[in-house]
Amino acid sequence: MVEDRRSLFITGLKNAHAMENQALSIIKPQLKRIENYPQVAARLETHLRETEAQITRLEDILASLDEDNSTLKDWMLSASGSMAAIGHSMADDEILKNSFANFAFENFEIAAYNSLIVMAELGGFQGAVAGLQQNLSEEEDMAAWLQDNLREVTTEFVARREAGESAKV
User: Fold this and answer.
1) Of 6, 7, 21, 161, which cross-links 74 as Cys (Cβ 3.0–4.6 Å)?
2) Which PANTHER family match (predicted)?
3) d(CA 65, CA 45)
């Protein structure tokens, strides 16, 4: 049973690593395109650095278990994140679509880290909990920021559209 818990935890860690690589493939294209929403760009830039640190934490946890990330999972989820970013770039309300998708993705990450923390506790991997908790905290902060700023972003989007200015990003 302990080996099953270890295997489940390792799979979850590899999935989380791929998930964070997917996050990078979503954030980076958004940052390249944002021109009119500096508050969003600044927060995404901060979260980009957080996400890179989260990947390092996950790699450290995997290494402590003599495991490595899954290159295939990383590549597949990165590709899907890039496709989502491309899809949103064609929308007239790109900034809103990105805001909605980012909020949903942050909540997905929150659920994943909550689950991983439980698996770490059940499997006796207490050394992993602090790093996972740090990742969870950063995702919760980003989700809260997105929720708290959706009204401002939407108001700015509408005002720009009404003024005939570029409202996309």
Assistant:
1) 21
2) PROTEIN YCIF
3) 31
Amino acid at 59: E
Cβ atoms of residues 94 and 169 within 8 Å:
yes
CATH number for the segment(s) 2-162:
1.20.1260.10
| Predicted model pTM | 0.89
Longest dimension (CA), the chain: 63
* Angle at which helices 126-162 and 2-33 cross, to 10°: 30
Supply 99's token pair. Answer: 């805001």
Listing DSSP states for 77-140 in one string gives HHHHHHHHHHHHHTSTTHHHHHHHHHHHHHHHHHHHHHHHHHHHHHHT-HHHHHHHHHHHHHHH
**pLDDT for res 2:** 60
Give residue-wise pLDDT tens across range 34-88: 989 999 999 999 999 999 999 999 999 999 999 987 676 656 666 666 566 666 5
3-state secondary structure of 167: coil
d(CA 108, CA 142): 12
Residue pair 22/77 in contact (Cβ under 8 Å)? The answer is yes
